[in-house]
Amino acid sequence: NVSANGEFPIFSKLNQHGRTGFAEVRTKLPRSLALEVANRHDAVLIAVDGARGRWWFATPDPTRNPPIHYGAHWYRDTLLRSPHRLGSQSFLETALRRLLPGGACTDDSWVVLNAGAHLGRWPAIAASHGCRAVSLEVMPWILPFLHVTREVNGWQDLWMPLDGALGSRDGDLLNVSASGGQGVAGARGSSGYDLQVRSHRFDSLWRRFAPNATGVLAVIDVEGFEQEALLGMRRLIRSGTLKWARIEVWTHIHGARRREYPGLALLAQHGYRLCGANGREIKPQHLGALYDSMRRMCRRKFAAPAKPDGILHCQDDIEAFHQKIFDRCGGEHGGFL
């Protein structure tokens, strides 16, 4: 836990079986509101041996049972069993390695935009490569962890963590459910929601925080609202400044079937090549069948039954490549030339 004098005892569970080979360390942090709030949620720092050296990641204790936060199961499995994978061998690192000389940013011409940041895995990886990052997260209790990770690594000039949701318009008031720690934003009625947040367009974030960027990478994980997020980055897409995006695509949105994917259609219209998680290219003419093909894929992979509403809730990770950097889906270099 974070002690009253502002010190983090480094999480020692990762030291079991001698896997990491480092002893407990104490790292000084300035007292801040982020530190105070993180302390209330069992904050720990985990050492990550990334491709460009060690950095620190703030998270609620992933061994706590029951988990203190939604998503703790992922951190339990990923961080405790193979913590190095947080900072290396990821799809974002593949993109940085293929697009940037030496896999690192040397100026402000490249930026990573991340919506649905959760505890900040992707912007942290971007900052560890010297790249600028702008992240959005709807759950206010999660934001202190992002700020602590930024502060302890000295990334204040690189990473801008923001609260709010991604949408197709700026300033919409969206409802958010905080039950169980899971945030799902929607523009529907207020019944059953705990708080409201403002929406932002990627286009606005790009112009405000990265006006000099000539290359943008995007990671979008917004629980069914990815199409609205993509429609809010029309200028970025049309300009060709977006070079690569990883989008978690859902078959449903608040209990309604999502049979149309206008955001993906916008990418295809402007020449972006789309690759599914199965390593196959999704042609523009096949977008109309995406819903049914994703349902079939999920039934085979998970044997997942339909929910009471008759909908198989399913998602797939789709990558979008600017045509000038694209080789082939599932290629030797992850789709990049």
Describe the overall structure.
- This protein is an alpha/beta fold.
- It has helices at 33-40, 72-81, 91-99, 121-128, 143-152, 202-209, 226-231, 234-239, 262-269, 290-302, and strands at 7-9, 26-28, 43-50, 53-60, 110-115, 132-137, 159-163, 165-166, 173-177, 184-186, 195-200, 215-220, 242-250, 252-253, 256-257, 273-275, 281-282, 315-321.
- Helix content is 26%, strand content 26%.
- β16 (273-275) and β17 (281-282) form a beta hairpin.
- The termini are far apart.
- The relative contact order is 0.10.
- The model is unreliable at 1-26, 83-88 and 179-190 (pLDDT under 50).
Task: Offer a few descriptive terms.
single chain; 337 residues; alpha/beta; 8-stranded mixed β-sheet; 4-stranded mixed β-sheet; 10 helices; 18 strands; globular
The strand count comes to: 18
Low-confidence stretches: 1-26, 83-88, 179-190
Distance between the termini: 45 Å
Described by the principal axes of the CA atoms, the overall outline is globular
What amount of the residues lies in strands? 25-35%
